[in-house]
From TrEMBL:
<keyword id="KW-0067">ATP-binding</keyword>
<keyword id="KW-0547">Nucleotide-binding</keyword>
<dbReference type="InterPro" id="IPR003439">
    <property type="entry name" value="ABC_transporter-like_ATP-bd"/>
</dbReference>
<feature type="domain" description="ABC transporter">
    <location>
        <begin position="2"/>
        <end position="216"/>
    </location>
</feature>
<dbReference type="InterPro" id="IPR027417">
    <property type="entry name" value="P-loop_NTPase"/>
</dbReference>
<dbReference type="InterPro" id="IPR050166">
    <property type="entry name" value="ABC_transporter_ATP-bind"/>
</dbReference>
<dbReference type="Pfam" id="PF00005">
    <property type="entry name" value="ABC_tran"/>
</dbReference>
<dbReference type="GO" id="GO:0005524">
    <property type="term" value="F:ATP binding"/>
</dbReference>
<protein>
    <submittedName>
        <fullName>ABC transporter ATP-binding protein</fullName>
    </submittedName>
</protein>
<dbReference type="InterPro" id="IPR017871">
    <property type="entry name" value="ABC_transporter-like_CS"/>
</dbReference>
<keyword id="KW-0813">Transport</keyword>
<dbReference type="InterPro" id="IPR003593">
    <property type="entry name" value="AAA+_ATPase"/>
</dbReference>
Length: 232
């Protein structure tokens, strides 16, 4: 059974693109194709004009679960990819310290994952994904397993991190509110096999809280209607 139909989208550097749609429409499949975890059965995925042939350091991935190594402390979890690629110890230490400050875990470097809350673990996972300095950050429902308050806080954090780093972000979610809050561009996929049912750029300001903008509710309703139609 096909997970995705023909999908044709060009994503510019620095965009925060959110993919939303009904369950089973191929959102995560599309993200895995970009990550290089699986090849497309037809067509191609290109990054900077080159076909994606597998995972690479130019694409960092954050999953729904943090997937931290429980036997390593937070700093060593963040440094893991750098260590396996031969980055010198002093450089690893400086990079991990910088990223842990960026995600608000500067005082938790020596702690083990089991000593952290779910939200803090996901912050560590984001820092680990950013450690190799990827051009693209791929996020597959990273806040879905968190309570509502923690989810809201991390939404604000990922907006701040995106603004600070200028990364290109491709973010999968089931939440229309999350999509409208985060995305500079929103792609709505139809039910399986997923196709692009709506490709909508967002003009909401990113320097302030988008919830306060008069157009927030209008855009939210437009995206919600597109999701409802896509699921029909």
């Amino acid at each position: 059974m096909l997970a995705l139909g023909p999908v044709d989208a060009r994503i510019a550097a620095g965009e925060f693109v959110v993919i939303v749609g009904p369950s089973g429409c191929g959102k995560s499949t599309l993200l895995r194709l970009v990550a290089g975890f699986a090849p497309p059965t037809e067509g191609a995925v290109l990054v900077d004009g080159a076909p994606v042939a597998g995972p690479g350091p130019d694409r960092g991935v954050v999953f729904q679960q943090p997937r931290l190594f429980p036997w390593l402390n937070v700093r060593r979890n963040v440094e893991f990819g750098l260590r396996t690629t031969g980055v010198p110890k002093a450089e690893r230490k400086g990079r991990s310290a910088e990223l842990l400050e960026l995600v608000g875990l500067g005082d938790a470097a020596a702690r083990r994952p089991y000593e952290l809350s779910g939200g803090m673990q996901q912050r560590a996972a984001i820092a680990r994904a950013l450690a190799p300095d990827p051009a693209i950050l791929l996020m597959d429902e990273p806040f879905a397993a968190l309570d509502a308050l923690t989810r809201e806080r991390l939404q604000e954090e990922i907006r701040r991190i995106w603004q600070a780093t200028g990364k290109t972000v491709l973010f999968v979610t089931h939440s229309v509110d999350e999509a409208v809050f985060l995305g500079t561009r929103i792609l709505v996929l139809s039910r399986r096999p997923g196709r692009i049912a709506l490709d909508r750029s967002s003009e909401l300001p990113r320097a302030a809280d988008p919830h306060t903008h008069p157009s927030f509710l209008t855009l939210r309703e437009e995206v919600a209607a597109a999701v409802r139609d896509a699921a029909a």
